[in-house]
Amino acid sequence: MNLVGKIFVVLTLVLSLVLMSLTVVVYMTQVNWMRMANNTDTKNGYPLGLIQQLENCQKENQELRNAYAILVGTYEVALQKSTNAAKEVDVVKNSQVEEISKLNETIANAYQETNGRLEGTLTALVKMNTIHSTLRDSVHDLQKEISSISDKLATSTDYENQTAQLKLQLKEMKEQKEDLLQENIRAKEVLSYNNMVNDLDYYRSSAPPAMIQGRVIEAAGRKIKVNIGSDDGVRVGHKFQLLSQDGSRYLCDVDVENVTSDTATCTFANLRSEQSINVVNGCIVKPL
Fold first, then answer.
1. H or E segment at 46?
2. What topology does CATH give the domain 207-287?
């Protein structure tokens, strides 16, 4: 074999080794790609296969879609509840506006009626004072007349009879005077009462005194009784806020519906019929 043949043999051997190396590289590359795509066991240090990762991502995506659908459903339910609550608030608000309008109308009518009665009482009192003054003058004149007649009839035989009649008339006039005095006293009492009822502050007081504060002494259903009353400036229609015993927690608003001198009965104002709160003795009420 000559030199050229040997060169070709060596070249063939080298090319064979190169081809074998390329085959091994291609095989290892294929094995690595297969492991990268399909590997499910990470104990040997190889990462999880791309197909498995894709399946996991698809599962997570589906779970997220399901969670999103649940959140959307929850949001729609909450939105519907909020809409219904807003409608209920509007209904309650309109009802309270109508009640306030009726109450204002009632107060205006009562104020007008009280003014009419007061004017009538004043007129009657003036008339009574005039009559009383006239009667007093008449009694004074009658006393003078009796004195004059007594002097003139000192020697007359019918002196005693005329004097008795005049004394009887004087007694009747005194009784009438006493009756008028009593009527005058009663008229003054009525006038005093009407002045009290006619007090503009009494009707125009839309809020209780700012510094007033009371506590619950009795609770029954949706009503409570508190230890402050008209002597403290509380009026029917006043509004208070109901707080816990230590004043740290707001419970609801209450309206005053009945008042005595030292107590007041209130009803819950801004709670729906199905709502309930735990009210115990000692809870605080204070102006809004």
1. none
2. Thrombin, subunit H (2.40.10)
What is the C-alpha to C-alpha distance for residues 268 and 242, in angstroms, rounded to an integer? 9
The answer to whether the CB of 254 falls within 8 A of the CB of 267 is yes
Beta-bridge partners for 255: 239, 267
Question: In this model, does residue 198 exceed pLDDT 50?
Answer: no
Backbone angles phi, psi at 202, to 5 degrees: -65, -40
> What's the pTM?
0.32
* Single-letter code of the amino acid located at 263: T
The residues spanned by each domain of the chain are 109-202, 207-287
CA distance 260 to 229: 5
pLDDT reported for residue 176: 77
Cβ 50 vs Cβ 39: under 8 Å:
no
Q: Cα–Cα distance between 50 and 34 in angstroms, integer?
A: 10
CA angle 226, 229, 230 (to 5 degrees): 165
**DSSP helix/strand/coil, 242:** strand
Whole-number Å distance between alpha carbons of 205 and 208: 7
Residues 209-216, mean pLDDT to the nearest whole number: 90
**Alpha carbon distance, N-terminus to C-terminus of the chain:** 120
Predicted local distance difference test score (pLDDT) of residue 206: 57
pLDDT band at 203 (very low <50, low <70, confident <90, very high): very low
User: What tens digit of pLDDT does each residue of 214-248 get?
Assistant: 999 999 888 999 999 998 989 998 999 999 999 99
- Token pair recorded at residue 97: 């506006």
